[in-house]
Specification:
This protein is mostly helical. Helices cover 78% and strands 0% of the residues. The chain contains 20 helices and no strands.
Length: 487
């Protein structure tokens, strides 16, 4: 039930949630970052470590968020408040929901600017605006694209409008129907690009780069990259997954659904690598250029290849879809809260949210041109939005979520909601109480640069810390729970 007393709408089926959640997870970072760090840090060896991190940190946290959402049937704020009240705990824990909802909104405020790059480059590819003879020429195109506030503002505004049109239509008619064709379309375009890569001349090098089992390249930095990406790639602690979970039908298995989303997210990221890197290697380019790989190297490479313009259009269309499926998930928590608590219609909530989002995103957009000198402590508006969300709000929100689930709530509540066999539930509880919090703390400390975490030098201490946390935590569990649940 919602705050207004009306039954909460649900996805038409389990696949609706899976496509929406996978679309939320598969964003711009997945298209370039995961394939690159996979090749950089040992290929198949890195993938194994990454999957271990996904199942140790990402999946337990995601299961927790979905459980909160489905049990509480509301926005992050309402769902967490209802669940903690059901356990007889303080409503103050709903502050975690406030932070998650605000985090998602703030992420979207600068994400629409980056997403606008994708739409802009799609248009440039269609109109021939990316014609260039060298890397310097294509870099000049990228610089000019950002230096023009009218141009950059137009594309970020377009992303905002498309997002609000989809969200304004509702969960089933807007979000579910959109992702039901956008996600299969994205996968189809990836397949076509992979086929193109097979005949580009660089496919063998790309496969070797991504899947060679090179343990020697798996450094401590690589392990930390795997851990960090496993947490951030699933859109955790931003309100998106929790809100999507509130629409999940009761009969759907949270465990199976979560694992399916995690696997799909990883498969799509690896497919992106197989689509991108053959083109890069065939043209003798550096695969480690980060965002520049997408907006500088690839456009130049497409020009030098047969049918390159066609496949360049497919690539940037795919990138635009990935950006849009992520953006609609990040605003849904705010729209849901306004509908449930302020009595607003879905359309009014969407366009009201969109207006505020547009104003803040405009300030973020101006960070690349007219507002480049508007800095605080050396950071622009765009930088601050990125810094506060990725380094503070998401790790702290994820940590708060698992602490509440592991120590504050009644154990029976999640046992009932998850519907897991006893052994699987015990494993989830151990992960949520000890493994996931430790992993999130490592991500948090590393992101702040407070201490240079080195797995190679310190993994025995981290393992000992984990064991000590489990032993002491279980011994003090009644006292800890009492301290955390007291008003």
């Amino acid at each position: 039930m919602t705050s207004s007393g009306q039954p909460r709408i649900q996805w038409l089926g389990r696949w609706g949630f899976m496509l929406a959640a996978t679309g939320s997870a598969v964003g711009l970072g997945n298209i370039w970052k995961f394939p690159y760090i996979t090749g950089e840090y040992g290929g198949g060896a890195f993938v194994l470590v990454y999957l271990a991190c996904i199942f140790a940190v990402g999946v337990p946290v995601m299961m927790t968020e979905i459980s909160f959402g489905r049990r509480g049937r509301g926005s992050p704020i309402d769902a967490i408040r209802r669940v903690v009240n059901e356990s007889g705990r303080s409503s103050a824990w709903s502050l975690i929901g406030w932070m998650a909802m605000l985090c998602g909104f703030m992420v979207l405020s600068f994400y629409v600017v980056v997403a606008g790059w994708s739409f802009s480059y799609l248009w440039k590819m269609l109109s021939g605006g990316l014609a260039a003879g060298s890397v310097d020429d294509i870099a000049a195109v990228f610089g000019a694209n950002n230096a023009n506030p009218v141009n950059l503002g137009f594309w970020s505004t377009l992303v905002t409008l498309l997002t609000m049109v989809i969200v304004g239509k509702g969960v089933q008619e807007g979000i579910e129907k959109s992702v039901s064709w956008m996600m299969p379309g994205l996968v189809l375009m990836l397949v076509l690009l992979i086929v193109f890569g097979v005949f580009s001349g660089g496919f063998g090098e790309a496969v070797s780069f991504l899947f060679s089992f090179n343990v020697g390249s798996l450094s401590s930095e690589g392990m930390l990259a795997a851990l960090g990406h496993a947490f951030f790639t699933l859109s955790l602690a931003s309100g998106a997954i929790l809100t999507y979970g509130s629409y999940l039908p009761k009969e759907a298995s949270i465990g199976r659904t979560t694992v399916s989303v995690a696997v799909a997210d990883t498969v799509v990221a690896l497919m992106a690598g197989l689509a991108i890197f053959p083109v890069i290697f065939a043209n003798g380019m550096d695969p480690g250029e980060g965002p520049g790989l997408i907006f500088m190297s690839l456009p130049l490479a497409f020009q030098a290849m047969p049918l390159g313009t066609l496949f360049g259009i497919l690539f940037f269309l795919m990138l635009s879809m990935a950006a849009l499926t992520s953006s609609i998930s990040m605003v849904e928590a705010t729209v849901s809260w306004l509908c449930d608590n302020k009595g607003m219609s879905r359309q009014s909530a969407s366009w009201g949210t969109g207006t505020i989002l547009w104003l803040i995103s405009t300030l973020a957009m101006l960070s690349f041109n007219l507002g480049a000198d508007w800095t605080l402590a050396g950071k622009t508006v765009f930088d601050w939005l990125d810094y506060l969300t990725s380094r503070w709000m998401m790790p702290l929100g994820g940590l708060g979520m698992v602490v509440v689930a592991g120590f504050v709530l009644k154990s029976e509540l999640f046992r009932e909601e998850l519907g897991l066999p006893p052994l699987a539930y015990a494993l989830w509880l151990m992960m949520v109480r000890y493994v996931s919090p430790l992993g999130i703390l490592i991500i948090f400390v590393d992101a702040l640069g407070v201490y240079p975490v080195s797995f190679a030098a310190h993994w025995p201490w981290l393992l000992a810390m984990l064991v000590a946390m489990a032993v002491v935590g279980e011994a003090l569990s009644p006292r800890l729970r009492q301290a955390l649940t007291s008003d």
